[in-house]
Amino acid sequence: MVYEVHILHTGYSRTVEGGTEANCTCSIIKGKYNLIVDTMTPWDQEIILKGLKDVGLSCEDIDYVISTHGHSDHTGNNNLFLKATHIVGFCISYKNHYYDEPFSKNEPFILDEELKVIPTPGHTLSDVSVIVNTLKGTIAVTGDLFEREEDLIDDNIWRNAGSESPDNQIKHRNMILTLADYIVPGHGPMFSVPK
After folding, report:
1. pTM, rounded to two decimals
2. Per-residue b/e over 159-187, b at no fewer than 16 CB within 10 Å?
């Protein structure tokens, strides 16, 4: 079955007086397995419910909830998906059962030959990214490994957003750039990987 990637919400991040204003990009991967990646803040429930309806899904149709890392703007509505397996960074769980995870051994969690979750630490030490093959090409949903397309030119953008391991972040950013045709970053629109 062919996978499709739908952006339910395009993230943003901007400096404001007294701090930062930000929300993450929220994506749906639709196919043999249905995934939601990064569920925004707790105040964004209506955006998610409407976005699911627009792509012909409901909360009950989601098989996996992926939070690329555990920051609050990426986990805020995970509780809407009670029939799904949850992957939050390196943690894989369903209800109160926690599964052995492959990420700390630098191995992927493979759903099928077209869809996998891979470890990409850097922004946090337990970041993951989703790699999905579509008719459009290979799409990497990376969370804050990439803040937005502009950080390809200005690495101060991702560095200033916080990085628990800049060396790992550089390594995993380069790896994604060789794997993907398109990147869905944590706080900006999807972009094509420059050749």
Report:
1. 0.95
2. eebebeeeebbeebbeebeeebebbbbbb
